[in-house]
Request: fold
Amino acid sequence: MFYTSTRDSSVRIFSAEAILRGISAEGGLFVPESVPKLSLAELKDLCQKDYIGRAKAVLSGYLSDFTPEEIACCIEGAYGTGKFSDPSVAPVVPLGGGLSMLELWKGPTCAFKDMALQLLPRLMTTALKKMGSNQETVILVATSGDTGKAALEGFRDVPGVRILVFYPNKGVSPMQRLQMVTQEGANVGVCAVEGNFDDAQTGVKAIFTDPRIAETLAERGMCFSSANSINWGRLAPQIVYYVSAYCDLVNRRALSLGEGLNFVVPTGNFGNILAACYAKEMGLPIHKLICASNANRVLTEFIQTGLYDCRREFYTTISPSMDILISSNLERLLYLMSGRDTEQICTWMRELQQSGSYQVSPDLLKKIQSLFAAGCCDDAQTKQTIAKVFREKHYLCDPHTAVGLRVYEDYRAATGDGTPTVVVSTASPFKFGASVLEALQEEKGKRKKEREEDEFNLLEEFSALTGAPCPPQLTGLRGKPIRFAEICTRDTMEQAVFRLLGTG
Ligand SMILES: *Cc1c(COP(=O)(O)O)cnc(C)c1O
Reply:
């Protein structure tokens, strides 16, 4: 299996190189030249396997340049005993009425990024060995919260790799900051950046593309790589849990083999839902993919009208991991659905960069709408949903997941589509405890109170109110020493990189 670029069909590389390079030289994203097929008979076999067995079967089709032993070693390291707090790794929880939740937050950082970021470092080090490289890899990450911590956990103490994370000083929640600044591991570094996420991201990009810095690193036997969600090595692991959820429902007789299933996905950068689209291309019987957005509704409009327009106000919401106006992975969907029309994609991406928008043809829009539906909701609706689902089903969900549930409710009312449906649950409610608690208390008519208490009192309050136990991944942070208190500015990020690497 070869990989090519969404913007240049002459690119032809193995998956190991695609995973190490992250992005193609002309700016396109790496995509498999063809999609491995999964027959119903093979799907039936997968029903008999556990998560690790399903992951091996699905990923071996995409990573054909890796040996079966290499794939097994990476997957067992990522999802083996003790890594995820639930033995099934990605449990499916029924809520009744043909609706289930796929809980992707049982990993070390309580958000779905762990599903990919536990595996990516192992794929990268294996790829480095295969390519015969003996350089030390420096992973640079700019994060708005969840990715940074998941990447730190995934890459910590991985031989041959260093990881540096920059987060906006005022742009992450107190719990997210604590998760990062107490990070253990001999190869990790964390630094706050004055400003917002864009400042951190722009700074990281500038360092990535500065040939002078690359040269200095090379002299020290190091090179940069990236762990952000456009890396194919983050996308491929996400295909597995869609297949796995389908198998779980068949085993539970909630679905018969071959019957259609809907997935609702709380979406930001379009990575998670794109993995579902690949699962469908493989042959998984998916009826509809429902793309759920918060007040940043650029994807809802695109899927409903074919116009992608990011010239709009940016909203900061209680589902911050979905506060995105440029969904990078949409480019891979355009590639799949336009019949691999790289020239057309170059045109759209140029228009997006120059004027902030592009419009796809009616034919392409029809094709997209045959698989995708879309909807959005605001913070008030998100909070109402958290309270309502807890009241009616005694199920606690985080704000991102609540957006998915709300959009599904609207979709079902509008279409009458009674197909069995799975809502993808992307974070533990405890990770966003303050917003969830507020939603539950507001419903009880309590006034919003100013919070003086620290994060841990809040977790306990939340646990007492709901009867749900606090995840040890979060309570275990209490009293941990702060290792990284440094703050830099965009202009001093370069010095921070070398200082954290111990070579400044
Ligand atoms: C990253 C994230 C999302 C958005 O996922 P995409 O792959 O970017 O669409 C949704 N919810 C949570 C909790 C996340 O961390």
The mean pLDDT is 93. The domain at 88-107+233-383+396-427 is CATH 3.40.50.1100 (Rossmann fold).
